[in-house]
């Protein structure tokens, strides 16, 4: 199947020329895992249609790995930002740890 623009893709779906959509990791990376907003959120329009969403196991596992790695990285950024902030405001390490636990919980990202 040739690459289609958004309008052409919409027309092909409407004419039922497309039976499935396959998503690759690069699409998720490109749109920064924006499942609630943006282009990835627009996939919801196919929820009640005959168009199938296909996510290959390898892609699913790769997506999970990317999301977990990003979650760990973002948590580290927050912790690193709280240290000087806490120092300048006189907030104890224990209070910062409570705040971090409140934000992230105690379990690792899944």
Q: Which spans of ≥5 residues are poorly predicted at pLDDT below 50?
A: none
Number of domains: 2
The H-and-E topology, N to C, reads as HEHHEHH
Q: What is the CA-based Rg, rounded?
A: 20 Å
Attribute tags:
mainly alpha, 2 strands, 58% helix, two-stranded parallel sheet, 5 helices, 110 residues
Describe the structure.
There is one protein chain. The protein is mainly α and 110 residues long. It folds into 2 domains: 1-55, no CATH class; 57-110. The chain has 5 helices and 2 strands, in the order αβααβαα. Helix 4 (57-89) packs antiparallel against helix 5.
Briefly characterize the structure.
With 110 residues, this protein is mainly α. It has helices at 6-14, 25-30, 38-41, 57-89, 93-104, and strands at residues 20-22, 52-54.
Fold blueprint:
Layout: H1 6-14, E1 20-22, H2 25-30, H3 38-41, E2 52-54, H4 57-89, H5 93-104
Helix pairs in contact: 4-5
């Amino acid at each position: 199947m040739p690459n289609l623009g958004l309008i052409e893709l919409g027309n092909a779906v409407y004419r039922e020329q497309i039976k499935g959509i396959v998503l690759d990791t690069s699409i998720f990376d490109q749109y920064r895992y924006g499942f609630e907003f943006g282009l990835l959120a627009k996939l919801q329009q196919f929820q009640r249609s005959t168009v199938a969403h296909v996510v290959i196991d390898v892609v699913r596992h790769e997506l999970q790995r990317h999301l977990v790695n990003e979650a760990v990285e973002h948590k580290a950024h927050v912790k690193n930002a709280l240290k000087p902030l806490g120092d300048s405001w006189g907030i104890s390490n224990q209070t910062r740890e409570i705040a971090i636990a409140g934000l992230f919980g105690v379990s690792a990202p899944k």
